[in-house]
Automatic annotation (TrEMBL), chain A:
This is BOS complex subunit TMEM147. Its main location: membrane. Belongs to the TMEM147 family. It comes from Cyprinodon variegatus. The chain crosses the membrane at residues 101-123, 143-159, 171-194, 200-222.
TrEMBL record, chain B:
GO terms for cellular component: endoplasmic reticulum membrane. GO terms for biological process: regulation of signal transduction. Keywords: Endoplasmic reticulum, Glycoprotein, Membrane, Signal, Transmembrane, Transmembrane helix. May antagonize Nodal signaling and subsequent organization of axial structures during mesodermal patterning. The keyword Lipoprotein does not apply. This is Nicalin. Coiled coil: none annotated. Residues 215-369 form the Peptidase M28 domain. The keyword ATP-binding does not apply.
Amino acid sequence: MTLFHFGNCFALAYFPYFITYKCSGLSEYNAFWRCVQAGATYLFVQLCKMLFLATFFPTWEGGAGVYDFVGEFMKSTVDLADLLGLHLVMSRNAGKGEYKIMVAAMGWATAELVMSRFLPLWVGARGIEFDWKYIQMSFDSNISLVHYIAMAAVVWMFTRYDLPKSFRLPVTVLLALCVYKAFLIELFVHVFVLGSWTVLLVKAVLTGAISLCSLFLFVTLVHSN
Amino acid sequence: MFEEASEVFDNMFKSSFPLTFIVFIPAVLILVSPLPAEAAHEFTVYRMQQYDLQGQAYGTRNSILNTEARTVEAEVLSRRCVIMRLADFSYDKYQKALRQSAGAVVIILPKNMSAMPQDIVQQFMELEPEMLATETIVPVYFAEEDNELLSIYTQTLTSSSSQGSLSAAEVLLHTATANGFQMVTSGAQSKAISDWAITSLEGRLTGVGGEDLPTIVVVAHYDTFGVAPWLSYGADSNGSGVSMLLELARLFSKLYTYKRTHAAYNLLFFVSGGGKFNYQGTKRWLEDNLDHTDSSLLQDNVAFVLCLDTLGNGDSLYLHVSKPPKEGTPQYSLLKELETVVSSQYPEVKFSMVHKKINLAEDMLAWEHERFGIRRLPAFTLSHLPSHRSAQRSSIMDVRPHVDVSKLSRNTKVVAEALARVIYNLTEKLLQSVFGLPHQQVQEEHLSAVVDWLTAQPRAAQLVDKDSNVVSTLEYHLSHYLKDVKRHYVKADKRDPEFVFYDQLKQTMNAYRVKPAIFDLLLALCIAAYLGMMYLAIQNFGLLYSFVRRITLPKAKVH
């Protein structure tokens, strides 16, 4: 709409990242450069994913409005590479668990924010046309920050050698949920024909649930030994 | 964070020049990138007439539009784009919008014009000349209704009519939920078209027997006029006249191919352009023929000139003359023959002669025959309209359903019959039809096909250039029946132009959904509150953490 509107959307999208960075104590660890490295890994992983998708998944040529169930599922399976990437980032950083998780998640989520949200915001929110979708996009970026922190925590737990046997199953389930979350939500949208605000709410609730569960597991694991 | 960041950037720039390049060039490109044109709705609009005639300016003088939409019900209209539907359109509302210095007027026309109630159509027809009578500073556009546009109208109507009577809280809520619309046209400012050529067409059938044969001239203008050029389909005025002329050309070309029926009259057919602009095509044609050449059919022995104008409807026929014909002249005999044919074969038709002197003081000539009258050629116009002031001659409402092909064909029969009786000098000899053989009869399908084709595209004088499909098809038709088919061009004089046309008559308009500035402020406040809450939540994340720990602690002990 105007530059002011862009400013609004920008603030809504970016300030939570800034606050998180400041309040989580990452700034005291001098972790900026490490976050940038995590972002670079994000870029590399996305590139690999894109190459893979372009090579092995031809364009879906079904009729419009038909949901390609299997194809979408397979595509979200490629998101497993994200887990590998997060693991790669965390394995290269030495330090406490929380620190590793936060650095990986912050770098990852910020790279995603810059790469996939900044340009649409700049181009769209500044135009004459008003649309709620830019506000929604900014909210969505907040949700994805929480999502990546939870995901990094789950990956960290999964790769620990001292993970108790009883934890193995819930952690694996959470991992699967993290990877297939986008797919599940898309399926929801398709089956229930949700409006854009409802989708956002569903996303927020689902992400909140996943991250609460992983917090429970994390706290239990960290303080059990 | 920022110190670290600047350190990192410093290192980056010092270490490698290409990296700077990679970072900065895209950044600059992004910053200077133009805004995209992604609109809520995009539709075609047709601008009101803009032309100068004899130094006088008519119609709207502007074409650029970039303002917010309102309906007439809103309190403040200044610098707003006022949108109206044809059903609610009235001259008072139009004047009110202009008086309050509205930024533009957009009139939404129904998709199916012929389904409108007759009184609204009639009322609008009468308003059209009034809207064009004076020049309007702001742009006036016409758009065709569709669902999107209707919804834009309804939303604007609700927001326009509910202003002023609400409390502050309601207004705030309203700004968040309701949509405003910014109307933007994509085109440039309208400017005069230089060197515009109006095309007219001429063709003839030469008679036999003797040197100095009398000539009968049949004339019809093909261009149309309405409040918006792109919407002027002109079915009755003057699609009907042109189709009748083509049919007469066909009939007499048939008769002139046989030796027995080849008459001692030259027939000259003229399809004139610029008829709605004071008969510019006819004027130039007369000048070319009478002043600039030595030998022309028009120079000697013209029996009469018959102009055909608006003949596709109604049960009456009027012969408009500027001087009542004297007995013994060919004009008088045509008048008599018309009376005879009508009274003997078509008693349901009312035929009469209307006498109106040429008023040279007026800006516009009334009928086409007056152009000939000024040059002392005996001429008259045949029409079903009793007066030249009739709004039907210059309306965008004059569309295909306005022509009744059966009546047009009946009128054509009357004219063909009367002309034939004059040409073959059959006065009072026989009362049955001259046209006996089937291929010599007036063909209704032929007439209706020509009218259909003519009304398939707007033929306003500003739109029909010399390469246009209308002109070339007309030329093809004429050359099929007639000999020596020629084009005549009229271009306005460069220094003192008699007519000037303007471009940008058809444009794409975008309606962007917008919110008022107060909405942005409100949104900023909400976002600030949300961010504050986020800050508190992240600051106090420790509380949640210890809470979770307290819950999980007993469990951990059990393990």
